[in-house]
Amino acid sequence: MKADCRLYLVTPPALEPAAFAVQLAAALDAGDVACVQLRLKDVDDDTVRRAIDVLRPVVQSREVAFILNDHPRLAKETGCDGVHVGQSDTPYREARKIVGAEAIVGVTCHDSRHLAMEAGEDGADYVAFGAFFPTGTKQVEHHATPDVLTWWQEMMEIPCVAIGGITPDNCGDLVRAGADFLAVVSSVWQHPDGPAAAVKAFTKAIAEA
Ligand SMILES: Cc1ncc(COP(=O)(O)OP(=O)(O)O)c(N)n1
Ligand SMILES: Cc1nc(C(=O)O)sc1CCOP(=O)(O)O
Ligand SMILES: [Mg+2]
């Protein structure tokens, strides 16, 4: 068992904030969740702000970190705990300057050891590897394998996140390989028995890995 692997929830691609807040609260109350990333693509800043206004208190009131995807300025302006940036987004160093030293900054590193080393040396709070499994949430060009997680764990103290098609049934190899966090979208929000059941299933799968 690797008890220190935790869940990292990423919001569904489209959501109505008030209705989603109910689902989110149920998911957070069902088990151990380390952080929630608000990931809304192709919407204007005011739409993101409205979602943050509704969802941030739900998350932060439970002592869970609230991370915004892609938008360091909005993250800073709205009191998010941090930001996640990819390789085509605001570069890490610029994002760090915007959000400040205390905020969390995570960086997508695909399957690249070089990108991960670079992000780690620059000061990223976590590096994210993926996609580990086929995903319908996003078109991905890079595919990672569990050995990158093991390599990272042996080299670095900075936490690593695994993402892409992760489910309670397939997460065991990633947990055993050394993932500090499992970042998940569809297997939680589209779980047939609801997000709370999904979080419980992940909690059990992580504990048994
Ligand atoms: C935890 C985590 N890992 C990876 C990503 C992907 O980021 P990015 O490559 O910038 O792609 P988009 O999510 O912005 O489409 C992520 N968001 N979160
Ligand atoms: C947002 C994202 N980034 C990825 C990457 O590989 O960097 S895969 C992905 C989608 C994750 O959604 P699901 O859990 O539904 O597969
Ligand atoms: Mg991005």
UniProtKB/TrEMBL annotation:
<keyword id="KW-0460">Magnesium</keyword>
<dbReference type="Pfam" id="PF02581">
    <property type="entry name" value="TMP-TENI"/>
</dbReference>
<feature type="binding site">
    <location>
        <position position="165"/>
    </location>
    <ligand>
        <name>2-[(2R,5Z)-2-carboxy-4-methylthiazol-5(2H)-ylidene]ethyl phosphate</name>
    </ligand>
</feature>
<feature type="binding site">
    <location>
        <begin position="37"/>
        <end position="41"/>
    </location>
    <ligand>
        <name>4-amino-2-methyl-5-(diphosphooxymethyl)pyrimidine</name>
    </ligand>
</feature>
<comment type="pathway">
    <text>Cofactor biosynthesis; thiamine diphosphate biosynthesis; thiamine phosphate from 4-amino-2-methyl-5-diphosphomethylpyrimidine and 4-methyl-5-(2-phosphoethyl)-thiazole: step 1/1.</text>
</comment>
<feature type="binding site">
    <location>
        <position position="138"/>
    </location>
    <ligand>
        <name>4-amino-2-methyl-5-(diphosphooxymethyl)pyrimidine</name>
    </ligand>
</feature>
<dbReference type="GO" id="GO:0005737">
    <property type="term" value="C:cytoplasm"/>
</dbReference>
<comment type="function">
    <text>Condenses 4-methyl-5-(beta-hydroxyethyl)thiazole monophosphate (THZ-P) and 2-methyl-4-amino-5-hydroxymethyl pyrimidine pyrophosphate (HMP-PP) to form thiamine monophosphate (TMP).</text>
</comment>
<protein>
    <recommendedName>
        <fullName>Thiamine-phosphate synthase</fullName>
        <ecNumber>2.5.1.3</ecNumber>
    </recommendedName>
</protein>
<dbReference type="GO" id="GO:0009229">
    <property type="term" value="P:thiamine diphosphate biosynthetic process"/>
</dbReference>
<dbReference type="GO" id="GO:0000287">
    <property type="term" value="F:magnesium ion binding"/>
</dbReference>
<feature type="binding site">
    <location>
        <begin position="135"/>
        <end position="137"/>
    </location>
    <ligand>
        <name>2-[(2R,5Z)-2-carboxy-4-methylthiazol-5(2H)-ylidene]ethyl phosphate</name>
    </ligand>
</feature>
<comment type="similarity">
    <text>Belongs to the thiamine-phosphate synthase family.</text>
</comment>
<feature type="binding site">
    <location>
        <position position="69"/>
    </location>
    <ligand>
        <name>4-amino-2-methyl-5-(diphosphooxymethyl)pyrimidine</name>
    </ligand>
</feature>
<feature type="binding site">
    <location>
        <position position="108"/>
    </location>
    <ligand>
        <name>4-amino-2-methyl-5-(diphosphooxymethyl)pyrimidine</name>
    </ligand>
</feature>
<keyword id="KW-0808">Transferase</keyword>
<feature type="binding site">
    <location>
        <begin position="185"/>
        <end position="186"/>
    </location>
    <ligand>
        <name>2-[(2R,5Z)-2-carboxy-4-methylthiazol-5(2H)-ylidene]ethyl phosphate</name>
    </ligand>
</feature>
<dbReference type="InterPro" id="IPR034291">
    <property type="entry name" value="TMP_synthase"/>
</dbReference>
<dbReference type="GO" id="GO:0004789">
    <property type="term" value="F:thiamine-phosphate diphosphorylase activity"/>
</dbReference>
<feature type="binding site">
    <location>
        <position position="70"/>
    </location>
    <ligand>
        <name>Mg(2+)</name>
    </ligand>
</feature>
<keyword id="KW-0784">Thiamine biosynthesis</keyword>
<dbReference type="GO" id="GO:0009228">
    <property type="term" value="P:thiamine biosynthetic process"/>
</dbReference>
<feature type="domain" description="Thiamine phosphate synthase/TenI">
    <location>
        <begin position="7"/>
        <end position="188"/>
    </location>
</feature>
<keyword id="KW-0479">Metal-binding</keyword>
<dbReference type="InterPro" id="IPR036206">
    <property type="entry name" value="ThiamineP_synth_sf"/>
</dbReference>
<dbReference type="InterPro" id="IPR013785">
    <property type="entry name" value="Aldolase_TIM"/>
</dbReference>
<dbReference type="InterPro" id="IPR022998">
    <property type="entry name" value="ThiamineP_synth_TenI"/>
</dbReference>
<feature type="binding site">
    <location>
        <position position="89"/>
    </location>
    <ligand>
        <name>Mg(2+)</name>
    </ligand>
</feature>
